[in-house]
Amino acid sequence: MQVDPRLCTGCGRCISVCAAGAIRLERGDGERRAVVDPDLCVECGVCLRLGICAAKALVPTALQWPRTLRSIFSDPLTEFQETQVTGRGTEEMKTNDVTGRFSFGEVGLAIDVGRPNATTRLADVQRVTQALAAAGAVFEEDNPVTHLMQDRSRGLIRPDVLNERVMSVVVEAKIPLARLGEALRALRVAAEQVDTVFCVGVISRVAADGRIEASSELERLGVTPLGRAKVNLGLGRPQQIAPGEGGCGP
Amino acid sequence: MTHTLHRLGDPARSRGDFVVLAMAAQGFNHVRAGERLARILRILERHGPVNLGDDSRGGVFTGFSVQELVEGAHDRSYMAAVFGSRRQLEGALKELKEADLGISIVVSGELSEVFAAAEAVGLRPHTVHLSLGVWGKRELLPDDEVLEIASMCGHGMISCRHVEEVRDKVRAGKMSPEDAARALARACTCGIFNPERAARVLERRRD
User: How many domains does chain A have?
Assistant: First the structure.
């Protein structure tokens, strides 16, 4: 995002709505003008969508690689072309009743780096992916971060993108339930190294008796989940798709 | 897409805050899913949500009418509705179960409340996503009130400074909590922000 200095009236209304703290007022030629710091801007587009600028001085930037990543990981309306899914991750457990992505005996890990409201550089995301890789986690194939890795076995992200700043990134991986403790210990070390925050999510199947499979392991590890959770209610089912049959499209 | 999981803040307010999500599994049941997702949105609407949206397009607070969301539903739509009570949630789930559309339904809320609602309508949870909280440099985070409001848009579209700004206006009597909450809701593109919960947080500031 940029500010057109010819149109900006210097009212400053755009400053508070910027979730990345990238807009400030500068004085030049005796006039105050808003400026967007391109290093801090995560290209989320929220300032533009809100229509906060009466002078229409906010102007979207034509994004080039690797800056396009900022939009992918910051603007919820930007689709990740490889998976055709908007948002920063995959369907993960939300369609697990159909896809069977997560089975008994394993857990999913969804680590939201930069969330809540802190933003992150991809270099800090790499600290998390390296930790998970060292603990033996297997990264989700369709996740945008996985696509950026040059060495999945070590969780290494391609170096030319590491300085990109984004709103948040969801790292998705799976690990056998018995190795959950290793992964959480590795994440505790990563938590000491990052210059941001991350939210930790654990995905588990529910047994027929209503028992959450990972609960006893988490209890053994001395880890107590927060009260809120996401629950897939099992109403989805696969359908037979004839060859060549397409959808109705966006 | 874990944007509804890590809502932080007061557990009592959290107990009356449920997000229902509906999406097709791409490659498994997405063909003509748009029609079924539109029906789901209509079902959700009937039970009095405080917010409603399609993650791929926008929500009722970002300028879409429910009719527009229904007409624009497509196979990759990702419908969301926010309910303020378990009674409403159970009503919606009961109707979704009866409609039997084959689309995955996920509820984000206090685990015990969601399990109880599922049991009440005869649904058996399949998979859960638990939150182990926020790790790392927590000193970067704003105060608890701001965080409770801002974290209701898991995509981070609601600026903490914007929350502080409207909180100051509410405190000064220049804005009602409800108007402040609606102003914040406009930034959340997918319709998962709970403006009633936000207004309750801000209401305390008016006293």
Answer: 2
